[in-house]
Each structure stands twice: as structure tokens, then as C-alpha cells.
Write a structure and sequence with these properties.
This protein is an alpha+beta fold. It is about 55% helix and about 15% strand. It has helices at about 5-10, 15-40, 45-50, 70-75, 105-115, 120-130, 140-145, 190-200, 220-230, 240-250, 255-285, 285-295, 300-335, 350-375, 380, and strands at about 55-60, 65, 80-90, 100-105, 115-120, 135, 150-155, 165-180, 185-190, 205, 210-215, 235-240. Strands 1, 3, 4, 5, 6, 7, 8, 9, 11 and 12 form a 10-stranded mixed beta sheet that branches. The protein has a two-stranded antiparallel sheet with strand order 2-10. Helix 2 (about 15-40) crosses helix 13 and helix 2 runs antiparallel to helix 14 (about 350-375).
Length: about 375
């Protein structure tokens, strides 16, 4: 009988206890894997941001608009290669629960600053030349089973037309995607002019500007120059990198990283205490057996190693099961949430980190029982017979 057989038999000598411990660890790593995947896709905007792309918003808040005339003035700033603008439309399809991320943009300049967005040439031309065109992301089109040529209404809780209607009619003339699956394709865009001419209020204003620079090393000075253009004006600006803007936008929705830390941390601390206490009790139950093993010639380091491996094996079995279930959960959720969280998947980095944490959990919970087992003396152990 080799060491691994002894370890396996000791691990499952009380099957119910072993199953409950594995189940507890599995739940902890299920939470870790699922939240890790959601956090990864939620913050993907920072990883897909271009180094030479800047975003200019109203200094008060990015939800406050700026005059349309700012767009023309920024085009003349030295070092700026392309600049576009966007305005938040929001909106929903048929009922408020069907929320659609929609933006009013200048078509040609928008695709110039976002060259990673791809579509057939004829659809690109249609987007440029059709005033009521709605350019739809591939994930959004798949969610609602839209196709080119469909005519749909989008309703808005914010923007009304001059005739008092909140329903905006669009013709889907193109569907865009991106080669990088991390680039979102879960929103829609339409002509700013079509939007601005029909607005009942807040006309000739834009939400934010996006621009590209000729040299990323000049981003800071270019941003400063842009903000100085509008200093002491009624709508002062703040220019930052696209990555910084995306981080600020995510931060508006709450500190997801802190929530993740608290949830996963609480689960792990609970599991740590449960598994650690149970392992100490299990080793105490085996004091006599350890004494017999030492009598038969098992050296203390070998017993230490066997107990520690038993704890690590217990943690790895539960951890890998949990990560496997998390992968299945995320894969199942990806199809139904493609319109809200495109590119949702289980990152390899989360799986590797989870496996490492499972091993670490096994070491932490097993080190004290292993030391206690190593220190057991034959006289003390056999004296309990």
C-alpha cells in the first residue's frame, strides 16, 4: 500500500464529512469563478481602449452636455488626427424592460475614430447616406433577431420630438461587429442630424467627443490644450484617455472590485475556518493510528507530507469542481446576456488563479494539522490505547 492510497482512504474514511467539505469548497470556488468572469467582461473596456484615443466631456459630469460648436474647434487642435462626437439616447424597444444602449453620432467621423468596427462596404455606405439609419451591433441584432432592412421604433424616457412623440422610427441599414471579441457590439447608433432636428429641447448640444492623436506620448499635452480652449466658459471640459474614461464610467455604477473582494473574501474565510477546524479534528481522531505508523517506522516528515497532501487534495477536488461548474454557468449565461454583456466567457486567468487559490487553501488549512501530526510521540499516542 503506497502513500497515495493511504491519503485517499484517510480522506474518505468518513464519507459524509468529506462530501460536505468538498461541497463547501465547491460553492466558494463557484462564486469566485462566476464573479471573476463577470468582473473580467465588465471591465473589458479598459483593456480594449486605444492608446491614442482621448475622450472629452463636460467638467461637471459626463452626463452634462456641451455645445455642438466645440466639435469644430477641437478639429483644429495640433496633434488631433480625427475627432467625433456622441450623445446618449438610451431608449428601449417595445417595452421599458428591453433597454437599448443607443447613441446619436456623426457617422463618418465616428467610424474614423473607431476603425476596429467592421461591416460590409455597402452597409457602411448606407449608414453614411441614410438619415434614419440605425447601425446595430451584432450581439444586439442576435438578441432581438433583427436583420438589415427591418424598420423598428425605439422609445425614449428622456428625449421627445417636437411633435410631442417619444417614439423614434429607424431603418436598420447595417450590422457592425469587431474582430476582437472583447470589443462590445451590444449597442446601436444613428445620425446626430436626424436626432437634433427632431428634438423638442437641448438642441445643438453633444454629450462627449472622442478623438485620436498622432502620437500617444502627446496625449497629456493635447488634452490640456483642448481643456484650455474652453476654460472659463459656461461648459468647461475635461479630457482624459479612453481607458480612464471607461474606468470612471464603470465606477459610476459602483465599485465592482470591492464588492467582488467582500463576497469572495467572506466565502473563503468561512470555508477556511470550516475546513481548518475539521482537519484538526480529523487528525486528533487519528492520534493512535499515527502512533502505530511511527512504531512501524513511518518517519515524522513522511507523516507531515501525507497529512498536508490530504488537505491540498481535498481543497483541489472541491475547487476544481467549483471552477468547472462556474464555467458551465458562465457559458450558459453568455447566450442569454449577449446583448448586455458581450464577450462573456470564463477567462483562463480566472481558472488559473482559482486553481492556485485552491492549492493555497489546502496548504493553509493543512499546515497546522500536519505539524501536530508530525509532533505526536509514540508514548503519547499509544498511551491513549
Amino acid at each position: 500500500m503506497n502513500d497515495f492510497t493511504l491519503i485517499r482512504k484517510n480522506l474518505f474514511r468518513k464519507k459524509m464529512r468529506a462530501v460536505l467539505l468538498i461541497f463547501s469548497i465547491m460553492i466558494a470556488f463557484l462564486i469566485f469563478g462566476a464573479l471573476g468572469a463577470f468582473y473580467s467582461v465588465w471591465t473589458a473596456g479598459t483593456s480594449t481602449a486605444a492608446d491614442n484615443r482621448l475622450v472629452t466631456v463636460n467638467r461637471i459630469n459626463f452626463t452634462v452636455s456641451m455645445p455642438f460648436a466645440y466639435w469644430g474647434r477641437v478639429q483644429g487642435v495640433e496633434g488631433v488626427t480625427a475627432v467625433s462626437h456622441a450623445s446618449w439616447f438610451g431608449g428601449y424597444y417595445q417595452e421599458p424592460a428591453n433597454f437599448i444602449q443607443t447613441f446619436a453620432v456623426d457617422p463618418e467621423s465616428w467610424l474614423a475614430v473607431y476603425p476596429e468596427l467592421t461591416m460590409p462596404d455597402e452597409q457602411r455606405a448606407a449608414f453614411f447616406n441614410t438619415r434614419d439609419c440605425l447601425l446595430v451591433g451584432a450581439d444586439l441584432a442576435a438578441q432581438y433577431e433583427w436583420s438589415v432592412g427591418d424598420r423598428i421604433p425605439l422609445l425614449s424616457n428622456i428625449w421627445q420630438k417636437q411633435d410631442g412623440s417619444a417614439s423614434w422610427e429607424f431603418n436598420i441599414c447595417g450590422i457592425f461587429d469587431a474582430e476582437d471579441e472583447k470589443v462590445p457590439a451590444n449597442y446601436a447608433m444613428f445620425h446626430y442630424e436626424y436626432y437634433n432636428e427632431a428634438l423638442a429641447f437641448n438642441r445643438d448640444n453633444i454629450g462627449w467627443m472622442v478623438l485620436t492623436t498622432s502620437d500617444p506620448s502627446q496625449n497629456e499635452s493635447i488634452g490640456r490644450t483642448i481643456d484650455e480652449l474652453f476654460a472659463n466658459s459656461p461648459a468647461e471640459t475635461e479630457t482624459s484617455t479612453e481607458a480612464a474614461f471607461n474606468e470612471a464610467f464603470v465606477a459610476q455604477l459602483g465599485n465592482i472590485a470591492l464588492i467582488l473582494l467582500f463576497v469572495v473574501g467572506a466565502a473563503f474565510l468561512t470555508i477556511l475556518m470550516i475546513v481548518g477546524t475539521t482537519m484538526v479534528m480529523a487528525i486528533n481522531e487519528r492520534t493512535k493510528e499515527i502512533g502505530v505508523m511511527k512504531t512501524l517506522g513511518f518517519p515524522a516528515p513522511r507523516i507531515f507530507r501525507m497529512v498536508l497532501i490530504e488537505s491540498i487534495l481535498l481543497s483541489l477536488v472541491g475547487g476544481l469542481l467549483g471552477l468547472g461548474l462556474a464555467t458551465l454557468l458562465v457559458t450558459g449565461a453568455a447566450a442569454s446576456m449577449a446583448g448586455f454583456l458581450p464577450g462573456l466567457s470564463m477567462p483562463v486567468s480566472v481558472l488559473l488563479m482559482g486553481a492556485a487559490l485552491a492549492a493555497l487553501l489546502g496548504v493553509i488549512t493543512g499546515i497546522l494539522p500536519a505539524i501536530n501530526a508530525q509532533r505526536v510521540t509514540i508514548v503519547t499516542a499509544l498511551g491513549k490505547l
